[in-house]
Specification:
The chain has 389 residues and is mostly helical. 80% of the residues lie in helices and 0% in strands.
C-alpha cells in the first residue's frame, strides 16, 4: 500500500508537467520538452547516486526511520513544486525528489526482512504490482485534477505522500533487529562501492549484469513507444494512452497474481530463463509487426516478461545476509536508474537513425536493439547457472 500511494503521487504530476514548465518558463512546447528531459535525467541521476546511500543507512539505522524521513522530505518536495515560480525551483524539486525516491528500495528491503526464502520472489512481485497500480491510477487522477490548474496535482501529491507517511507511522513496524544491523561505511554507500561489495558475493556480479541488461531493454517501452506507435500504426494519443494503460494494468496483474504460482511451479531460475526468452521473442515480434490491431492485442501479453525482475530479486536476496538487504536494494535502484539514464538515448537514437530520411526504413529498430540486450542478459544468466558453485 505504501509503494502504491507513493507511485500515485509520482504519476499525479506527469500530465501537467508540460503546462507547468511553460507557465514558469514562458517557453514553447519544444523548449518545455527539453527542460522536462533535463528534469527526468536529474531525477534518475539522483536515484543512481543516493539509492545505495539510503539503502546502507537503512542497514545501519533500520528501515522505518529511513522510510519515514524520506516521506517527510517528499511531502516538502511536492509543496515546493506546487508554489515554484521559477524553473530552477522546479529543478531543485526534482533533485530532492530523486534523492527521496528510495521508498521502493526500502520497502523491498523490508519485504526481504520479513519473507521466508521461498516467498521472497513472490513478495517482491507484490511490491512491483503495488507500484504498477499506483502508476496507472496516478496519471488518471492527475489528468482530472489538472483541469483545476497546474498546481492542483502537486498539492494532491503532497497530500498522498502525507497519507503515506501517516500510514507508515501507524502500521509499519521495524523489520531489521538491532543485532542484525551493520555500521555505515561511505566506501560501501556510494553506488560504485556498493556494487563492488555486492558483486564480491559468489555469482552476484553476473546477476547484477543480467538485471542491468534487462532494465536497459525494458525501458524501450516508455522511451519510444509513443513515437513508434505514431510512426508505425498512426495511432492517436488516446489509443497510445490506452495501450500504455493496458500494459501497466497487465504488468501489475502479472507481478501481483501470476509470479507466485509461476515460481512455485518452475522455481526462480527457470522463471528468469523463461521470462528472458519470452522477452527476446516479444521485442522481435513488436519490431516486425505492422498491424496496429495485433500490436494492441500483443501489448498486454508482452507484460508476461514482468516475472523476470521479482525472480531475480529473489535469487539475489538469498545471496546476501539480513544486514545487507538495504545495500542490495540500493544497488538495484542504482542499476535501474542508470538504465533509465542510458536507455532512452540509445532507443531514441536507434529510432531516429532508421526513420525519416534514413536509407534503411526500420522503425522497429529500437525493439530489435532491446531484443539483443535481452538476449545478452539471457546469455549471462545461462553462464551464471553453468558456473561451478
Amino acid at each position: 500500500m505504501t509503494v502504491m500511494i507513493d507511485a500515485m503521487g509520482i504519476g499525479l504530476i506527469i500530465p501537467v508537467m508540460p503546462d507547468l514548465i511553460r507557465e514558469v518558463r514562458g517557453a514553447d512546447l519544444g523548449t518545455a520538452a527539453l527542460w522536462g528531459g533535463v528534469m527526468s535525467t536529474v531525477f534518475a541521476v539522483m536515484q543512481f547516486l543516493f539509492g545505495p546511500v539510503l539503502g546502507s543507512l537503512s542497514d545501519r539505522y533500520g528501515r522505518r526511520v529511513v522510510l519515514m524521513t524520506s516521506l517527510v522530505f517528499m511531502v516538502l518536495d511536492y509543496l515546493l513544486m506546487a508554489i515554484a515560480g521559477t524553473i530552477w525551483l522546479l529543478l531543485l524539486g526534482r533533485v530532492i525528489g530523486g534523492i527521496t525516491a528510495a521508498t521502493q528500495a526500502t520497502a523491498s528491503a523490508c519485504m526481504a526482512d520479513i519473507s521466508a526464502p521461498e516467498d521472497k520472489a513472490k513478495n517482491f512481485g507484490l511490491i512491483g504490482a503495488g507500484f504498477g497500480a499506483g502508476f496507472v491510477l496516478g496519471p488518471l487522477m492527475g489528468g482530472f485534477l489538472g483541469e483545476f490548474g497546474t498546481r492542483a496535482p502537486f498539492y494532491a501529491a503532497a497530500a498522498l505522500a502525507a497519507l503515506n507517511l501517516a500510514l507508515g507511522y501507524m502500521v509499519l513496524r521495524e523489520t531489521l533487529p538491532a543485532e542484525k544491523r551493520r555500521p555505515f561505511n561511505w566506501r560501501r554507500a556510494n553506488p560504485f562501492g556498493a556494487a563492488k561489495s555486492v558483486s564480491a558475493l559468489p555469482g552476484a556480479g553476473r546477476l547484477l549484469v543480467v538485471f542491468f541488461f534487462f532494465q536497459l531493454a525494458f525501458v524501450v517501452y516508455p522511451a519510444v513507444w509513443s513515437y513508434y506507435a505514431l510512426e508505425r500504426y498512426g495511432w492517436e494519443p488516446g489509443t497510445i494512452g490506452l495501450s500504455l494503460a493496458l500494459f501497466g494494468i497487465s504488468f501489475g496483474l502479472v507481478q501481483g497474481l501470476l509470479i507466485g504460482p509461476v515460481i512455485k511451479r518452475f522455481g526462480e531460475k527457470k522463471t528468469v530463463t523463461g521470462g528472458l526468452i519470452f522477452d527476446v521473442a516479444a521485442f522481435a515480434v513488436i519490431g516486425f509487426i505492422s498491424s496496429g490491431t495485433w500490436a494492441l492485442i500483443l501489448v498486454p501479453i508482452t507484460s508476461l516478461a514482468a516475472v523476470v525482475v521479482p525472480a531475480l530479486q529473489g535469487i539475489l536476496s538469498k545471496q546476501v545476509g539480513p544486514e545487507a538487504q538495504g545495500e542490495l536494494q540500493g544497488v538495484l535502484t542504482s542499476a535501474g536508474a542508470m538504465a533509465a539514464i542510458l536507455s532512452p538515448m540509445m532507443m531514441t537514437t536507434a529510432f531516429f537513425a532508421f526513420t525519416g530520411d534514413s536509407a534503411v526504413y526500420l522503425p522497429g529498430a529500437p525493439f530489435f536493439l532491446a531484443a539483443a540486450l535481452a538476449a545478452a542478459a539471457l546469455w549471462v544468466f545461462w553462464s551464471w547457472q553453468s558456473a561451478p558453485e
